[in-house]
Q: What sequence folds into this?
């Protein structure tokens, strides 16, 4: 069972139990103005809904500086992490780009992240789609990557059984994204979904 501290992290971005990174960002980073606001996680089950509190949310400012607030158990104050929610658009899709510093801040205090999982300029990508006030986030499924590597459909370096780095220059990595949209959202877990808080709910 997920602890309350980790629940919002999983809903918002990615669990690095199995991690797929790109050797570098395929495009220069920019701020998507549509992300600005306060976002509330939508639970995927009644069990998850019971764990969510008013301390579970994400705020994104006009420069795409994001603050993630995560409720904790008992009388502990909410845990907060700050990341840069910049990204790029390609082929009609939008991607968030999380660098090593973002991941360290996101998973501070856990043993989920080790430095050798995000070496150098490697980045983790999260594909996102905004429809109205709903934000859907999709991560890369490590089992899909493993299958594609085994079938020689994709080039990726295996760091260990659960961690891969997709190599290439910017143009090659853009080609990977355009040719293989099925890299994202293929895992057993449903897409991570948030809704934009109405203005009256914004502090």
A:
């Amino acid at each position: 069972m997920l602890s309350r501290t980790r629940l919002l992290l999983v809903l918002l971005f990615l669990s690095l139990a199995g991690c797929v990174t790109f050797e570098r960002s395929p495009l220069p980073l920019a701020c998507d103005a549509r992300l600005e606001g306060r976002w509330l996680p939508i639970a995927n089950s009644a069990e998850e809904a019971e764990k969510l509190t008013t301390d579970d949310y994400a705020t994104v400012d006009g420069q795409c500086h994001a603050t993630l607030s995560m409720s904790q158990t008992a009388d502990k104050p909410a845990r907060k992490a700050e990341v840069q929610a910049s990204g790029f658009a390609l082929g009609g899709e939008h991607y968030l780009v999380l660098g090593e510093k973002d991941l360290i801040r996101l998973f501070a205090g856990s043993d989920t992240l080790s430095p050798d999982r995000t070496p150098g300029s490697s980045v983790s990508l999260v594909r996102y789609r905004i429809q109205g006030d709903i934000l859907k986030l999709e991560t890369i499924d490590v089992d899909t990557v493993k299958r594609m590597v085994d079938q020689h459909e994709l080039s990726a370096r295996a760091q260990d059984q659960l961690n891969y780095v997709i190599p290439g220059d910017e143009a090659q990595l853009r080609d990977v994204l355009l040719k293989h949209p099925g890299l994202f959202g293929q895992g057993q877990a449903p897409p991570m979904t948030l809704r934009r808080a109405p203005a009256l709910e914004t502090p």
Helices lie at 4-12, 46-51, 100-106, 142-150, 170-179. The mean pLDDT is 82. The radius of gyration is 17 Å.
